Queue: 3 jobs
Job 1
Amino acid sequence: MSGFEWVALVLVSTVLVALALLTALWFETQRLEDAWALSRLGEPLGLRYRVLGRDYLAHPEPFVVHEKPGAAAENSVIERSLVSTRAQGLPAVFEYVTYRDPMRLRRFGPPFLVLAVRVPAGIPSFRLRPKGLFEAFLNIAHRDVPQRYRVPPGWVMHIDGPEDAGSEQPLPDLRRLAKSGLWIQVSGNALFAARPLKPWQVSCFTQEGIHALIRQGLPVLQALDSPDAPQLETLVPPRTLHAQATGG
């Protein structure tokens, strides 16, 4: 190789390395900005931003997100979260990810965003979710729920525990809950609401994603008389709530 070729090779290598470093710096800057933004987002309600928050927020089994085909509970991790400083850690918003292997090296799919809040005592433990494409195509019927609950068409409901365990306080109209389009689970005094996975829609743990999940879940929280509903409503921008109220 001639001297000119050596100089050109060095220059090209230097440019490629510089571009790689700048790209890595840009990604790291974006990550730090997102972390600061999420920390500021939860400060008014006493929500702390955590990474790998599995040890700080308990969730019941069977968990509604495990309805996803192929998901394994032991390989599911709460990666990032906004968790309350209260003893129960509620209200909270977390990013729930399932991995193919226990070493957490290969993801099964995109993460879920889950909203967790408190609900009054006495509500029966139940799970409500929309039917999957396979279930809807084959018109699979689930008849393990009493007729008095009036499950909306295209939705699946499961009663967890004895049927009369929550007879003190009846459930609200399930059609009202189904209008949210969320996967819903009540376990004990906690409500979990998650967006169903769609190939064209990826849930992201960002301010916009959290605002969208809270906005979508507020009617469910209000229907179940969650004491966290008024506080979470303050996290959603006023113009967003106005657009929702006016049908925008």
Note: The chain has two domains: 1-45, 46-161+174-235.
Job 2
Amino acid sequence: MLLSNTLKYLPSQVLAPLSQFLSIILWTYFGDEKLIGYITLITAFQELAMAMFVNWWMHYAMREYGTFKQQNNLPAFWQSSRSVIAISSVLMVIAALINLLLFIDQAASLTTCILVALYAMFRASNNFNAAIASLEQQIVRYSILTTVGPFVGLFIGVALLQQFGADPIYPLLGYVLGEMLASILAYRRSSASWRHWSVNRSTVLQALHYGFPMIGSALFAWLILQYPRYFIASSMSLEQAGLYAVGVGLGLRIASLITMMVTPAALPLLFKLVHEKGEPAAVAQLQQNLLLLLLVLLPGLVGLYAVMPVLIPLLVEQRFVDAALLVMPWALLAGGIEAIKNGYLNHYFFIRKRTGAILGYDAAMALTAVVLSYFLVSAMGIKGGAMASTMALALGITVIGLWLLLTKRVTLPYLSIIKMLLAVGVMYLLVQKVDAAQPLTSLLLKIGVGALSYIAVMLLLFRADVAGFIRQRQSGAG
């Protein structure tokens, strides 16, 4: 079921994180260290503002949208949503401007402030509407809302950089225009008139009870990955933050690019199962979701680590290569652990309505990351920042995962995971043996050998499952 939903959303699931990955690469050619540090501090904070001010309502809406629909109460839902998102957008704008003027650029121009405010507003609206579109399986609308803004916006910004020079205002303008275009293309009149703005008090209180812990959790989850970036900018320089952003950005975005191929369809499917078949069915599906996540995550991250020395010099401008190679391995590992946290552990607590637990372990990991950043950045520079995030995530996920297993709240498909690890190990060893005189030839050979060896070993180890799947498809077609 998840595989079917995943294939429907695959184009948008690839394009959205791909745009973020490409942005880091392109900015190394058309910008400089200071521009990258400036823009990534703005976009990183947008993720925090979205998580704190919008996601609490968005996750509640996704969790209970089926109930509103079954009760024929969607007009009231949309009226409450419109009011909540409007208020949340205002809060996002205020927070984004405070971040800009206090931590990034105290002398920011009025134009920059306006662009940051518009970016926050359109991001809030488009992300919420995309979440609802995924529940309704409106694939085209979802794809527009999630890809046009970041992808089209990126290339508008790069074109402006090429034409007018390395000024942060141009990437910002590109993103704003991209999000505006997405809003226009995906506009749809809702079942409730825009003239009616009202909030159902009991609904909002329920949403706060469900989602309020997620506000604190969002702050802590953001601190785990983003605090080192701010610490480096304040203790070292904006240029060093830019170098850090290249390596960390590539690592995290690659991990996101891999996991986004399977995870966006997972949570709506779980919520649908909760309403239709109950929580036990959703928890059972969660184990299948984990297997599909690991199926693409493990070979993707290990394969990238294996080809990284050849790949990075081909991707980024030469002066950024050393910093990227220094930081990126830790960022890849952090991105992989974060994917398991967001795509498996958090989903368990979402469907159990235990969002307070997410707040607890995110807070512990954030505190660990802050403390480790102070010591590791001071001792190792920008590499220490990536190490701080990775070590905090690894410690937290290990503890909460063991607790869930030992208390028998979840079970793991150990045999399948061991088979995947074996296939990944064989793949890594074979890739390391491949080499060629030309870097591009070497990269292509390594990728080819890695993909073929992983697929071959997986087919061998899972031959009974593959045969059963083929028979099932054949009997269904018949």
Note: DSSP finds 17 helices and no strands in the chain.
Job 3
Amino acid sequence: MSRTAPFLHRPSARVARPLLVGAALLGSVALAIPTSADAAPHDGVTTAALLSIEDVRAAGLDGDSATLSRTGDAQLDDGGHNDENCLSDKTIRAVTGAKSYPDRGTGQGYADGTWSSTQDKEVYVTEAVAQGATAKDTDRYVATLTSLVTRVRECQEDPAEGFRHAPVRHVDAGGGATADYYATVYADGSRDGGGVAVVRDGTRFGIVSLSSGRDSSASTLKRLATWAAQRLR
């Protein structure tokens, strides 16, 4: 069993992204490291609205590798369980009713990220975010994501032997940003701190998943969900 890395204090402000970036591509064009200007609401959501590698480390995970994209075509993941869930065949574009990149899409920008570790294969965090054109549109997208998460057992071949989610926990991330996170519960009732969260700030929204937080209390998941919500602005 891998040990849980000690908790690090979260940086007070976003710092430069790490040099070790697996693949950050927009189609076939390399994606430049985002600047603070990328986060401007009128520009639409970009990778600046995603978690940083520092957030992953501060949550107690030994993350050292990141893959970023602005296509919105990365498959959504549910707590690292790709075999039986409602999310693995979905993308953030599909949630908004858009076609795959390079189609313009209905959202005002898309971004996906994956954070992992070259030292610890159990470290795996994914995130996908987008921006709706209106609050009403965003309400619908968030409801779709929530439905996919809460109905996860319906997608499993043998629900009795599969996993489910614990009741939702709500977090006020400040400034109007919110996060609803759902811890993964296995068939035997055990938990490893993994799970999924739906985050929102205004018309920006997204989903974050964690394969294992190494803690039954889901405190790691809660940290990531809170910071992901704060990063949306």
Note: The longest helix spans residues 135-150.
